[in-house]
Amino acid sequence: MKFYFEKRKALSVKAVVLVPVVSFVVSLLLTAVILFIFGANPLATYAAMFGGAFGSGRAFTETLVKAIPLMLTGLGVALAFKMRFWNIGAEGQLAMGGISAAAVALFASPWIPKVILLPAVLAGACLAGALWAGIPALLKTSLKVDETLTTLMMNYVAILISETLYYGPWRDPNGFGFPGTAPFPEAAWLPRFAGRAHIGLVFGVILAVALWIVLDRTRWGFELKIIGNSQASARYLGISVERNIVMAILLSGAASGLAGGCEVTAISHRLQQGMSLGYGYTAIIVAWMAQLNPIAVVFVSLLMAGLLVGGDQVQMMMGLPAAMGLVIQGMILFPMLAGSFFTEYHIKVVRSPKAAVAAGGAA
Amino acid sequence: MKKLAVLGTILLVSAILFAGCNKKPVEPVAVEKPKAFKVAFVYIGPPGDLGWTYEHDRGRKALNEAFGEKLQTAFIENVPEGPDATRVIRQYAQDGYDMIFTTSFGYMDPTLEVAKEFPNVKFEHCSGYKTNPNMATYFGRIEEARYLSGIIAGKMTKSNKIGFVAAFPIPEVVRGINGFTLGVRSVNPKAQVKVVWTNTWYDPVKEREAAVALLDDGSDIIAQHQDTTEPQKAAKERGKFSIGYDSDMGKFVGDTVLASPIWNWAVYYKDTIGKAMAGTWTSHQYWGGLKDGVVALSDLSPNVPEDVKTLVKAAQDKITGGWSIFSGPIKDQAGKIAVKEGETVPDDKQSTMDWFVAGVVGKVK
Q1: Which of B6, B77, B84 faces A277 most closely, judged by CB atoms?
Q2: Predicted ipTM?
Q3: Within the 153-182 window of chain A, which residues sit less than 8 Å (CB to CB) from chain B?
Q4: Are B42 and B84 contained in the same domain?
Q5: Pair (B206, B100) in one structural domain
Q6: Residue A68 contacts residue A302 (beta carbons within 8 Å)
Q7: For residue B338, what are the domain limits?
Q8: What value does the mean pLDDT take over residues A9-29?
Q9: Is residue B12 in a domain?
Q10: What φ, ψ does residue B354 adopt, rounded to 5°?
Q11: What is the pLDDT of residue A351?
């Protein structure tokens, strides 16, 4: 008897609906076992997690605060992945966005009229993110340098640049030596609409809809899809693969740069430690769970943010160790991601050569 | 559209499942007495760091013993300094906690932000300088205990190089290094204190690496301002002595730890929570020293000779008797007189201290 995976010929509706449901139930059950071993009531724990993330208006605003950077970076990553450009660099692009926003807000503000200061700051963030992503894109298209490595390594460079700045020349002279820049002028603060939730949410939703329209309804989107499916076919059809990849990756980087710009202008109002908490990496999970669909990214980032915020409740309300929150997050994500595999593939069981022929005939 | 359907289903199922959970009677985590005063602590590291957070958590546990069922405490560990801390602090405030202690310098702005939003909740921030009518600060003159430990290090170094693994170049740490160095120099004017910054409070790997670098450079005693015992362990592995910090690190590492300047937060926590429960709490800036018991020098290791013990005892009596370790004459790194004879550094200048005394090798900026 042999097992192997076979790609489903068509997406079966039953699989599309059942697989995520079953994966989610499996994850909850698996997690319940672990919680039980640690002496916690699984139902109470889930209730605490859900309450902490979505249970009240105030709690929900904090979930939004985390969802916004996940959404923006998730969209950037999804766009790059659509073209099979493995941009692992959202984290660095986000950091460069934060640095650039800080540079404009702190040092260019005296020369920029107050009314357009915030747009200038955010434009600076987009530009820096785009440039940071553009380097690996150019290296890939002109020299065939593997982008997985370059984007990943440039994350560390970007984070080190930001640390060098706020530990060194940009350190707040009135900050008693603690690392971090001076606070930005208030004209460069991105408005918040509830709690700490800010209008970066609007940017995220607009970008999601725009990307969905571009990818599904425009000629350029169609070209990008063809490049993603087969570069050879794209070339055969006369599509400029290099130019399109660079353009799309610039856009991808700009989205992550904007995420960084929003974080510093709306949340911390300065460049400091803790600007990103791995949002750029979590964005990869968000993009995959959303199956690279921009509209789905909006909802998946909300779910993921809820999981992150709710994870803290495990400690705060249930008195479990901090690592338990991470374990639960992993336990919930893993079957979900594994499950998405089964929407595209199914297991084929072969009992004997004869049966295989029969089964093949039946399928 | 199918992908949307997948998502819709995920959302729906999660909503149904979670809604189901909510309706069932949720077992309370701790037995809630109606009048229990609820206090929360926000920690930078885990209580298992055996240092900074360990001591705060010992303080928290002492509260449970002291107040029994009248008090309910909770804590969260590993909260990064910066914007994410705001969320955690606010969560406790909105969950009905009466008083919230935030125990790292980088929580200062987040604590103030939440304090302004919740005027009926009391906040206490450890080691900062910003206050509000409902936000107090508290800290201790650990540099007094560091001065005493400096005497031991100054007497026992053979290479006249003492390594100091330090977190951030902020006044709290600078003051400690200065206090330590003044203690060293009071008994050994030739000794130097070499500083390496790690730019982190809690990172066992970086703390160890910094200690190893100092040992490689020839330091034969390692002192520190970090959260864990790693620098002490690194010194022990090289067969060198060390000076601990936060907790009595000799208990965890062994007799190579000659002594540790330690925190005794229970003294302060009992007092301020007692006031809050009695309704007499007001915003304040607490800064206790050796004589208040909030800071102390641990028991000395058997490796410390009797004559050194006598010196330490004499200095301790002098400090608890009211003498300031920042009494002049004190020279700065350039050799210029920074504090004249007969003068002392006033508290407000101590709380913003950004210069090193003579004998320190390293830069604040």
Answers
A1: B84
A2: 0.78
A3: 163, 167, 176-179
A4: yes
A5: no
A6: no
A7: 143-260+298-361
A8: 77
A9: no
A10: -135, 30
A11: 73
